[in-house]
């Protein structure tokens, strides 16, 4: 290693001496770009392996990534372009049947060839490449170089040595996989499913040259052990995989490259830089191989880092800008990768789906490919999936009817329950009439009230509505009469609940979950645990008499709701309110028959449900909203949520409304688009019961995708209906649909087309001179 300059590194300036730890694609490309931008730079790359040593076989790059490479370094782009194999199709083999979807546009090349191209470019530019040489520790390099780029992979020694600064979080997952190759080229991206006596196994395969393909074999850990792979050596595993997937391989052998069975690890770092050391690629973040993102992310990191170093006046500013630019992109990719990873972990849930629905489900698993996007790529494939659904001709999936007991909903859109905090003494007023009436006129199949409280003490805030007095019932009847009269075909449902330990708080906009300054009422809960110790009131634990009283309050409210002519009743057992407080082990610490085991924790919510089901008219449906996870250690698990749903379905629930969280204040939700839908998906495809999916579903394309994939039966949207009360009608107009699933009210029909706007485009020039 060159010795430090007399003056030492100058991190406040654009770096001239740069050390790169790791000779993978990301590290090499960063070195090449930084050298190309400033030829006077002294850049050294350390790689502990030989130049031709690499793990894995093929690399897939997107058009977006290639476009960035083309603009940044045409020499590298042209070299890559000459090597790529391209294809458009994805083949999905499901129980002996091959389903093909086209128009996807892949480009791949061998990983070894990619490294050769980058080696050549680095040498041509004057970057020093030191192979078979362990890099000095990053801390040592940091004293002699202006910038240290740690591109040392998923097992980054730099990251682990300085873990207190980078704050990594590394999560292992439930599948084992092995990276292999075959000496022939698939003509598509191929997914093959093997249902063996030991469990489900899957093959991911794609070509990376005219005569070679990457083959990844993956399965759950318990399947891997049951099949005896844990006792086989490398060649034994290779031969066994070739035998299991002989049909896909045409009875050809597989080969390895120091291949071993691995558990994928998702890497997340709180910080990407420390002093003048920065993480890049897998050292900073990983995303599951099933969306083909590892090399793509590393190359894009290199592009962004080089650009930020060039654009920013100081190194600290450059490293901050690099992370600011890349982190949102990486987090979005990681969310998509996590959805894809979990889909494959739960693959066995979907095997009984009809073949085309299974294929559509697989293609849209990451939520990046959607119904509308897939229609653009392959309209013929999407058409047959829709016909299988079945969608009437010209009808988007969201506008197909759905029946719950004696209630037929004209479409699959639900206006989700949203607390408005606008009642006085529990009495819904003009605001509620206009709020719910407007959304009923807006075209949704089902409009839900906010949580309607069964007693004054069961309110969350003084502004919450109730159904515990005759006056409240009369006010609600005014709302249901309006909906049935002015929006015929729209159903309206009531959600009944009790706040439990989360009651006696301020209106949301005055201080969410903050206790009232005065006028507090006593709280009741499963256990005497305040929502936030030292802040919220300590509730009293309900005794037998208290449980009976609250059960009777629910019964009285249900009786009134039936006479108010609500079409559907939902029991609120989510979000940390009273019944949810019995279900979660974090909030139920009872030692009697209502605490301890899940069966005991279910006992009181089921008692309430049974009473309501006995009162509620038999032809009208009942649903139950649950929190499928508490997003907190020791809380309700995804597996328990399935058992909770199973219990309510066995007692007569017609659908499960699957939400998550809001049970404890220290939860850590994994926010993102449609982030709660995997829990609904799991319940639906495990139990076969209808589910309502909810949680950051924001577009009609998402709704169509979830329905066609069989992940949900109904989709509940909240914020989109606050933004646009006519969200459903506008979704129909934007899709060119005008059928019975979304009729416009007669007074509004003139607005069923988007109003014209001023012209914003200008005539194109007739001639362009270069």
TrEMBL record:
Pfam families documented for this protein: FAD_binding_3, Oxidored_FMN
Residue ranges annotated for the NADH:flavin oxidoreductase/NADH oxidase N-terminal domain, each copy included: 398-732
InterPro entries given in the database record: Aldolase_TIM, FAD-bd, FAD/NAD-bd_sf, OxRdtase_FMN_N, YqjM-like
Region (Disordered): 738-770
Domain FAD-binding: 18-334
Record NCBIfam families: PRK08255.1
The name this protein goes by in its record: Bifunctional salicylyl-CoA 5-hydroxylase/oxidoreductase
Lineage: Bacteria, Bacillati, Actinomycetota, Actinomycetes, Kitasatosporales
